[in-house]
Amino acid sequence: MSDTIAPVARAGAKGTYFDWKSWLFWLIMAIWSIPLLWLMSMSVRYNEDILTVFEIIPSRISFRGYIEFFSEPQWYGALINSLTYTTMNMVLSVAVALPAAYAFSRFTFSGDKHLFFWLLTNRMAPAAVFLLPFFQMYQALGLFDTTYAVALAHMLFNVPLAVWILEGFMSGVPRQLDEMAEIDGYSFPRFFLTVFVPMIRAGIGVTAFFAFMFSWVELLIAKTLTGPQAMPLAVQMSTTSTAAGLDWALLSAAGVIAIIPGVIVIWFVRNYIAKGFALGRV
């Protein structure tokens, strides 16, 4: 009799504990989701309803904000500009950081620790510190109001972070692997590209995610270095106003669209981010 009751009691206690954590998790998620759900609700409502009627569930639905977003060149052009310089920055940051991180993880040289610290200090500095130098240099070089300008400027902040993250992942790969590849006759470029890089693909995924997210949400540098030709979506949203005031439905639709690329990137690298946390580099 006692053998039958004991497992049931343990199962009941375990089930109650699990339900408490589950309810707390969903409660936090619900509170956290309120601004996002409210933004999505505003994006499918009429402007007059947004300003005059308090509704949790819209009584009237309109997709005018989304239609206007994809029919106005300044809006979908701003989205293309943002995707262009963000992708460019992400690819270049990872490409530049890979050999640098390998050098820090495999070799010891004079001043290596000081150089590593100096790289990180660039990441810690506020973006406003570098605005004037970037503005004058890009004007002199003819890069002002181009997507290249923003992509290159963001590399100043993303490359140090990328080196720091990748160095942690590379240090986890045994050095004996390099020696075995050399004994087997691998040239260094072949070993690095076909053996070493695939082994740290989790680190590359995490690095690409952080480079993408920083460049995607950064506003100050993007606003200073761009004009009408290369204006990104975040700047377009912050400068949009009509004679009748703000177009709430259009701005809300733009906000929802601006969230989608980040959600897609997070979906693909979610497992890699967990591994980055485990290694202490995220």
UniProtKB/TrEMBL annotation:
One cellular component (GO) term of this entry: plasma membrane
Keywords annotated in UniProt: Cell membrane, Membrane, Transmembrane, Transmembrane helix, Transport
Taxonomy of the source species: Bacteria, Bacillati, Actinomycetota, Actinomycetes, Micrococcales
GO BP annotations, alphabetical order: transmembrane transport
Classification via Pfam families: BPD_transp_1 (PF00528)
UniProt cross-references to InterPro entries, sorted A to Z: BP-dep_ABC_trans_perm (IPR050901), MetI-like (IPR000515), MetI-like_sf (IPR035906)
Source domain of life: Bacteria
Subcellular location: Cell membrane
Listed transmembrane segments: 23-41, 83-104, 116-135, 147-170, 191-217, 248-269
Family statement drawn from the similarity comment of this UniProt entry: Belongs to the binding-protein-dependent transport system permease family.
CDD domains: TM_PBP2
Residue span, ABC transmembrane type-1 domain: 79-269
Membrane topology designation: Multi-pass membrane protein
Keyword hit for Isomerase: no
Protein name, as recorded: CUT1 ABC transporter permease
Coarse class of the protein's main subcellular location: membrane
